[in-house]
Amino acid sequence: MSDLLALEGIAAGYGSIQALSGVSLRVTTGTIVALLGSNGAGKTTTLNTISRVVPLTGGRILFDGEPIHELPSSRVVMRGISQVPEGREIFARMSVEENLVIGAHVRRDRAGIAADLERVCDYFPVLKSRFRQMAGTLSGGEQQMLLIARALMARPRILLLDEPSLGLSPIMVQQIFKIIRRLNEDGLTVLLVEQNARLALAVSQYAYVMENGEIRFEGRSADLVKDDGLRRTYLGV
Prior knowledge:
Radius of gyration: 17 Å
Mean pLDDT: 92
Structural class: alpha/beta
Strand order of the largest sheet: 6-7-8-3-9-10
Number of helices: 10
Low-confidence stretches: none
Shape: globular
Distance between the termini: 31 Å
């Protein structure tokens, strides 16, 4: 299989603060790749840089072999990259259906959008029963489902997931990760940032570990989870 996404020595920051330095990683088509590390390691900045929310100061980003690091964020979405941000960034005073339709804002195929509303509700049946409900009244877990479903409405080839388990009950976390597995089995590629390293390594095929804006370790998830020193020092498991 070929690389769908490749970061080659990227650097990025916020003003004078350097957040990423020489970060390189690859995400193979059809896989789940985990990006792990402590708070402040640079994981979210990496996703935001891919989505073109944070500008690069060095390196390049390739998607399906073509550079995207100079494209505006809307064009990145149109190319097939959707991000699910951390923090339940929904439109609270809009309905569930309206939130979902906003996820398809880069599309013009009305019939396809209608079909995808049904498709995402197949993954998240609870959303179908909440279509007319204000999104802000959903539970935390339901809001997380809405965020993922909204990102799927853009028909992405790769999904960037930022801390999908944050603040959720253990039962809801299991439900969310079951859906992530199903999406991957149905062909969606995933780059996963996740605080629960044990769970992330269990669901992914390959993983990178960040520290202070740099990649410190990488390898097959099944191998990293067996490395006691790595688990204690960097993963907290």
